[in-house]
Each structure stands twice: as structure tokens, then as C-alpha cells.
Design brief:
Two copies of one chain form a homodimer. Chain A is mostly helical. The first copy, chain A, has seven helices and two strands. The radius of gyration of chain A is 17 Å and the shape is globular. Chains A and B meet through helix 1, strand 2 and helix 7 of A and helix 1, strand 2 and helix 7 of B. Chains A, B: It comes from Mesobacillus jeotgali.
Chain lengths: 183, 183
């Protein structure tokens, strides 16, 4: 995904989207650009590195971002729960843990980025045909309280930022450990 | 700050704010609620813990959030650079590092939360008297590209999420170290 930096710091109208969708897309674009920047050039060893046994690797976190986006497509666009098959396919990415550690291991960066980009294309294709009203449709959500679609997609990028912050920390810890071992 | 969870998952109209400001405030409220949840009940020792020598403690990250909010008030509401005095007062919180480590040490949680709440009150007071048009005003921003006020305030909460993700990781590493030492 090539992002035009001249638009990156403007939360404003985006061609092909309703006015409020444009704001959401503006934020999602910026967040994704920072995720891509954080992982640029990482090797398989760096993607698989674990700061402790129960930790998530950077590769696992990238896989998680793609899985979260997919599950929100199902829940909000298709207004349904995932099928047993989808749940099975997404479990490693959503739940991470031991399952995630086994599933996301040994892959080059391009593997994760291709998944992220494919999900994002699907999301934006759908955003482009929905009207802004859709964003304010509510369902029961967490703790039995109402949640609207704008919040649900905000949460998708909010979760990405959370993990991007962690990716930056993992990189720092990894480089300190390598320095330490080299001494 | 007491947040009503019945509104927390709705990005929608908020009393006292313009329609687009309402969306921004909705997001800022949710983010803040998760920050408060992440730090709830932390002791001074937990707030000061460093996962490595050059790391940021949770206390430092909370101080950073308040300092970022203050500098964005100056830059966007007052449309000016900080004075030398303000720069000096905010440097430890903005830049962190050794200066931040020295400045934010030995304080109880309430100290950081009071600062965060005071800045947020100032921000919302001003948001409440601005019209939505203000959000789309542009200035030169990073890398000489344009940035609007909506983006600038998005960045304030985006940075908070980033560090909240790190706070969650620091807590996990700290508890693992304590378990390890207890063995």
C-alpha cells in the first residue's frame, strides 16, 4: 500500500467515501502507515523474537491485526457471528498464545503485509458503498451496552495502535539483548 | 473522571460539542477509560519500575500523556510555539529519557491522574466553544506537509493508545520478574 504523505495528516474528505467514513479512513491510513514504518525491513528472526516465553512476537501481532480486521468485517458488514470454520481459521490470530506462537513462525514480513493489505482492501471496498448512516447503527456490544459501527471500526485501528506501541518496545528490547550478547 | 459505560462504545453526538467534535470526544473518552483501567491500583514501585535502564516507567508514560495534551493545547488553541518557560516545564514529560526518569519518580498514581484530568478539562472546555470548522483548519505540519486540527487531536489520543499498549506490556514484564524472583 503506497500512502501519499501529503494527505496523511489531514482527517478530512477522502475520495470514494462518505464524509464521516472519510474521517475514519483518514485515521486508519495514518495508523497503518505507522505500523508499516515500525516493521519495515524486519527479518524473520526479528519477527519471531519473543521477549519472554508467554510473549507475542511482532509476527504474531501483525497476524493479530489482520485477524481482528477480518472478524470485524464479519461482525459489522455481514452482521453475523463467525462460522465454526471461520472461528477455527481465525483463532490463532485472534487469541494468540501458544496457538499463535505455533502458527506465526518462520514467515517473512511480506507474508504478514500481504494479509494486512488484503483485509484492508476488502474493508475499504465495503466502506466505499456504505452510507455514513451505517456508522451510527447500534447493536448490543460489550458488557451488554450499546456499540455502533463507528466505534467498532475505531476499535480496529485502536487495537492496531496499541500493538504498534508494543512492536516498538519489542524492537528496542531485542536490539538491547543483541548488544548485550555481543559484548 | 467518571465515565458512563453506556455511552463508551458509541462514537456519536455528545452534549456540549459540535457533531464532529463529538466523534473526537467519544474516541478520547474511550481511550482515557482504557488508560485508567490499565493503571488502576498501581503502587509507586510499579509506577517507577524500569524494564531496562533506558526504558520509560509507567509513571513517565502517564506524565508524557499529560505533557503531550498540554503542548497540543498551546499549538492548536493558542496557535503558537511554547514559550521558553513552557518548554522548560514540559521538557521532562515530552522528551522523557534521563530528564523524565529524574522528574517522574516517587509519585503516587493520584499525582499523575490529577494532571491528566486537569489537562483534559481544559481541552474539553475549549472544544465546547469551538465550531466543527476549526477541526479542519490546516497548518504546515510534519515533513512540511499540511496537517489539520482534527489530525493533531487524533494524534494526542493515538499517542496515548500507543503508550497504553506499552503500559500493559510493562505490567506483564514486571509481574513475570517478581514471580521469577519469588522462586
Amino acid at each position: 500500500m503506497v500512502l501519499d504523505r501529503s494527505q496523511l495528516f489531514l482527517i478530512d474528505e477522502k475520495e470514494g467515501f462518505g464524509p464521516t467514513f472519510s474521517h475514519l479512513v483518514s485515521m486508519m491510513n495514518y495508523v497503518r502507515s505507522t505500523t508499516l514504518e515500525a516493521v519495515e525491513g524486519l527479518t524473520i528472526e526479528e519477527l519471531d523474537f519473543l521477549i519472554h516465553d508467554g510473549a507475542n512476537s511482532i509476527g504474531m501481532l501483525l497476524a493479530h491485526m489482520a485477524a481482528v480486521e477480518r472478524i470485524y468485517q464479519i461482525v459489522t458488514f455481514e452482521k453475523r457471528d463467525p462460522t465454526a470454520e471461520e472461528e477455527e481459521a481465525l483463532a490463532a490470530g485472534l487469541d494468540l498464545g501458544e496457538k499463535g506462537k505455533a502458527a506465526f513462525n518462520g514467515f517473512p514480513l511480506e507474508h504478514y503485509l500481504a494479509d494486512l493489505e488484503a483485509e484492508r482492501e476488502d474493508t475499504y471496498r465495503k466502506f466505499g458503498i456504505l452510507s455514513d448512516d451505517w456508522l451510527f447503527e447500534q447493536t448490543d456490544w460489550w458488557w451488554g451496552e450499546p456499540g455502533n459501527n463507528y466505534f467498532k471500526w475505531f476499535h480496529v485501528f485502536e487495537d492496531e495502535i496499541n500493538h504498534r506501541g508494543q512492536i516498538r518496545m519489542i524492537k528496542k528490547i531485542h536490539s538491547l539483548q543483541k548488544e548485550h550478547l555481543a559484548k
